[in-house]
Amino acid sequence: MQVLISLSFSLVGGLLMSRLAKKLNLPAVTAYLVAGLLLGPYCIGALNILDIGFNTPEEVTNLDIISQVALGFIAFTIGNEFRLEQLRHMGGQAITVGIVQAVFTTLLVDAALIATHFINPDLISVSSAITLGSIAAATAPAATLMVVRQYKADGPLTRLLLLVVAIDDAVGLVLFSASFGVATALESGRVSLLTVLVEPLVEIVLSLVLGGVAGWVLYRVERFFHSRSKRLSISIGFVLLTVGLSMAEFEVGGVHCGFSLLLVCMMTGTVFCNICDFSEELMGRVDSWTAPLFVLFFVLSGAELNLRVLANPLVLLIGVIYIASRSLGKYLGAYGSCRATGCNESITKYLGITLLPQAGVALGMALTAQQLSDGEVVRNVVLFSVLVYELVGPALTKRALIAAGEIREEGRTSARTKNKPRKPVHLGE
Prior knowledge:
Elements: H1 2-23, H2 28-39, H3 57-61, H4 64-79, H5 84-119, H6 126-135, H7 141-151, H8 156-188, H9 193-222, H10 228-245, E1 250-252, E2 255-257, H11 261-275, H12 279-304, H13 313-340, H14 345-354, H15 360-369, H16 375-403
Antiparallel strand pairs: 1-2
């Protein structure tokens, strides 16, 4: 009963908060996160009044399956952006920009935090510094997608943005695995090529293969049905299946094998949308069905944010350095790679700003990084940065898309608008 009441308050509270956010000209995703903070165990939830909110962090953690499922649908939706027709026009640029800005951001954050270590070794270790650098590469596809959806943003910048945030996660996975392997080696005195290079590449390959097979099977199963509701149900069932399968782990010949939830579901969506002639209409129906799920995802994400980290001056200092260097790395990396690949002026100026949000993927990496000797510093710094980025990032993304002319003037919109196929755009226009 308590869980249902908490979920009810989360959903209704998040939506009510979004009305206030609209008056303040803020994206709805920011409102959902604030609602989560208020209902979380460090605010209203701590008062333990009539089961309103979440009384303990464990109550939020126990609902992690909702967040996992939501991330699966988010990745499935982003996979819909990887249409071959569109990739022919902008695929090369998206891959180049995605890799360059992620690597540049990692190197810049590494340099800033390692320099901090040499100035005061007590603040942060070298192993934690290089681990935080790799975490900096990750972005928040969920927050970005929500802003794009809410304001119906469309144009060259929006299309490239959705591709880049998807590529970011693959690049970030490799960078984190390699950096964390090196960090572990620095502390143990032993470098393992297996953990640094082989296992992350195996994870990416397995994820792409599983997602590709799932996308093909989904299309074959969908062909047996003609009812829209049944096709929607099949799609939902397959996303749940891929989320479940992506949690599997096993070993082959001493190599630890696992899957990336985001990559699996993203590949499922990519394969499905490129071989299915009715995918556009079906994706529109999936988007409508998942709206409440996404609200819960962000409210729960807000409830997970630990406000106690703000009381630690060490975390605040390292966090400020991390946020400043990461923000600079994202902007300069995107700016330079966009210019080098011939993107138009608006993309070059504003893409870096839209890549600032950071959330779930980074938190997952930080959880792994707790194995380091001062891994708690890494986790708390990431918690602090996520708190800042998730509250500020969506608003900055909105501003950048407005400045690029890809968000129309706000007004009342109908939920019954059809999801029409979009024509390819050219990034150099």
